[in-house]
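Weekly sync notes, structure subgroup
Attendees: PM, AL, DS (notes)

Item 1: joint prediction request from the bench team. They want all two components modeled as one assembly rather than separately. Inputs as received:
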Amino acid sequence: MKTRFLPWRSSSRAGVLAVGAILAITAASFSVTAQQRLSKRYPAGQNVRIELRNISGTIIVESWNKNEIRLSATIESKGTNVTPRQINESFVIDVMSDNRGRGDVGDINFKLQVPVNSSIDLETRRGDIKVADIRSGLVRAHVSSEGDIELTNVSALHVIAQNVIGNIFFDGEFSRGGTYEFKSNKGDITIRIPGDSDFRLVAASPARRIALNDFWNNNFKTQDGRKYVGDVGDGRSSVSVTNFSGQITFMRR
Amino acid sequence: MNCETCQELIHDLIDGSINERDEFTLNTHLKECLDCHSVRQDLASIMGFCRTQRGQYEAPPNEQAMWLRIRNVIEAELPGKVVSNTESKPTFLGRLMGRTWELTLPQLAASTVAIVLLVSLSTVVGLRRFGGYGVQPNPPQVEASNINERIFQRQQVIDYWKQRIELNKAHWSAENRAKFERSLRSLDETIQILKDDLNRNPHDDISYEMLTVSMDSQLTLLRDYVDL
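Output from the run, pasted for the record:
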């Protein structure tokens, strides 16, 4: 059996490629390990207020059956500060203030597990926000630019969800006397609520894409299909939905 | 005798056309009134001077006829416009303004009642004709200009923040910049569409409401990113 060796030039080229590949894999593994991971628990009361101001990244907030807050975060850039503060009944994380003067600190993905009655106030410049299983006075989710907002199994007296580009999904209940505001410029807004919900609705969509489905009744007043104003049931809570180019859909839960 | 009557009589006295009774009364007043006495003295001096200078300053034999001749010469030399001005009849307004109104109390009361009735009647007719009672809405042009003014002011604030943010963009990550610019563009497009709608129909409440919402959203976006 004859063995053919590669010419010197070809073998050296292959060697360079192999070394490059090894270096690339090493760099990638370093970048993974360079990500900081943060995991901490904080004692909290039942009605704690959670305030989180992020720059970019995903925020997930879920309830759990404990009177404490568990914070997990993945921090993309080395040296980024995340300093949670507990002030009275508030738990505050302000990435912008913690890193003032550093410019863009990259993505920070948060996951918070909180008592079920916590008030939630979340902001990010970009990134998705997900809140699940909360019963409290306030749930606010604000995305300054792009990002989906998903509020699942939420029952709060005041709910505010706002983004510029991205979908908004609300699945929950409207409380008596509560206010609910959903606003997007480009994205679909879907509201899934129990069939016996009572609320006064003001829904505006210049694109004329409003589907009230089971919640439609003859008392609704509309101005050429761009805006609907009317009561469902006795109109105990106030719901405002504004969407410029996306769809507004009401669904029975 | 009062001073006014006295000074009228002084002219007659100097002209020599006063009667005896008036002369007596005048003289009695002149003895008592120093002012009238000095007027008489002045007039007497003027007349005395005129008499002594009779050769040089002789009065025309018929003064009225002389002024008439002068006026005729001037009128003949001037163009018709000036003549017509001097000859034109006074206007209705001029006559009305120049007139002195003297009304008795019943006439005044009747005039007042008539004016009140006229104003009330015209108000009622006007309200019925132009949309019922209550405060009338602003004319459409005024409303449209107010809306344009408000939009213009808001746009100026947005432009200010846009300028400010341009300086900071260089420090952002590519992804942050891309997402910011896409959101800004999306809102710009929305705002432009709504402005066009409003230009077509300045009374479109929904377009104005949505425009306000979109401009507020853009302002929030800019403010949120300016510190990044």
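Discussion: The longest helix of chain A spans residues 8-34.
Action: AL to compare against the crosslinking data before next sync.
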